[in-house]
Design brief:
single chain; 277 residues; 2 domains; elongated
C-alpha cells in the first residue's frame, strides 16, 4: 500500500526526503513572506492594543482558555460556514489534506523499510477525501460560479490553492493505481503531474490562500475575545427593538432614516438557504 516503496527503486529515498523538507521550508518561507507583506502580525497586535482600551471588563485566564477552546472546536467542525454543503466540503478537504500530508511524510521517511498497511490505506483515503471535498466545492458551490455567473473553468489566481491541491490529490491517486496495475508510462506521467502540482501548492503560498489557514484562527479568537470583553471589535451593539426610547436616544439618526417607528425589515439575506458562500 506504500506507492513510494516501488518508486524508491528508481529515486533514492534520500532525494524524496529532501523534497519533503524543501516543501516544508517553502511553506514556512511563503507564510512569513505573506505575513510580512500583508502586515498581518502588526495588524493583529495593533488591533489588540486598540481593543484593550475599549474593553468594558478584563477577562480572566480561565475565560481566555475557554474562548480559545471554543475557537478550536469551531475550527475543527468548520462552524464558520453557514452553508451546510460548504461546511461538509471543507471538512473533507481539511481532514483529508492533513491525513494525506502527514502519511506522505511517514511513508517517505520510513523508506527503505516497510510501512504499515494502515498508513498506506490512510494515505489513499486522505487523497480521496481531498478529491471529494475539492470537487464538491469546485463543481457545486464555488463562489464565483454561483454568485458571479462565471463558468466552472474560469480560473483566476485566487483559485491557485484549490486547483493545485486538487491536481496533487487526483494525480497522486492516479499514479498509485497506474503503478499498481503495471501501466508504467501512464504512471510516470501521473507522477510528474503529481510532483508539479505539489510543488506549485507548497511553493506558491505567498500568492495563494494557503497562508490564511495559519492566521484565520487568530482572527477568530480575537473576534471572540472582543465580544466577551465588551470592546465589540469597534462595532456598536445591535439593539433588538429599534423603536425603543433608549435606542432613539443613543442612535438619533434612526428616526431620520427609518421614521419614528422603524418597520420590521424582514429576513434579508436569511430569506433563503445560503448557497453562495
Amino acid at each position: 500500500m506504500n506507492p513510494f516503496a516501488e518508486l524508491s527503486a528508481t529515486i533514492p529515498p534520500s532525494i524524496m526526503q529532501l523534497y519533503v523538507i524543501l516543501m516544508i521550508l517553502l511553506v514556512i518561507g511563503g507564510t512569513l513572506l505573506d505575513i510580512n507583506h500583508k502586515k498581518s502580525a502588526q495588524y493583529f497586535f495593533e488591533k489588540n492594543q486598540a481593543l484593550k482600551k475599549l474593553a468594558k471588563r478584563e477577562l480572566s485566564e480561565s475565560e481566555k482558555i475557554r474562548i480559545a477552546l471554543a475557537t478550536l472546536i469551531e475550527i475543527l467542525v468548520s462552524g464558520e460556514f453557514d452553508n451546510p454543503d460548504r461546511r461538509k466540503s471543507h471538512l473533507f478537504l481539511m481532514y483529508g489534506f492533513i491525513v494525506f500530508v502527514v502519511t506522505t511524510a511517514i511513508l517517505i521517511f520510513n523508506l527503505p523499510g516497510k510501512s504499515s498497511f494502515l498508513t498506506g490505506l490512510l494515505w489513499h483515503l486522505g487523497a480521496l477525501s481531498v478529491c471529494v471535498g475539492g470537487y464538491w466545492f469546485w463543481l457545486k458551490i464555488r463562489v464565483d460560479v454561483r454568485s458571479e455567473g462565471h463558468q466552472w473553468n474560469d480560473v483566476h489566481v485566487s483559485d491557485l490553492f484549490i486547483v493545485s491541491l486538487l491536481m496533487t490529490a487526483t494525480f497522486a491517486l492516479a499514479w498509485s493505481v497506474l503503478q499498481g496495475i503495471g501501466l508504467d508510462t501512464l504512471a510516470w506521467i501521473s507522477f510528474a503531474i503529481f510532483i508539479a502540482a505539489a510543488t506549485t501548492l507548497f511553493g506558491t503560498v505567498f500568492w495563494s490562500k494557503f497562508a490564511h489557514m495559519f492566521y484565520k484562527p487568530a482572527a477568530a479568537f480575537q473576534k471572540k475575545l472582543a465580544k466577551a470583553d465588551g470592546s465589540m471589535d469597534k462595532l456598536p451593539e445591535i439593539p433588538d427593538d429599534l423603536s425603543s426610547p433608549w435606542v432613539k436616544e443613543r442612535y438619533p439618526d434612526i428616526p431620520k432614516y427609518m421614521g419614528d417607528n422603524p418597520p420590521y425589515m424582514g429576513l434579508g439575506i436569511k430569506r433563503e438557504t445560503p448557497t453562495h458562500f
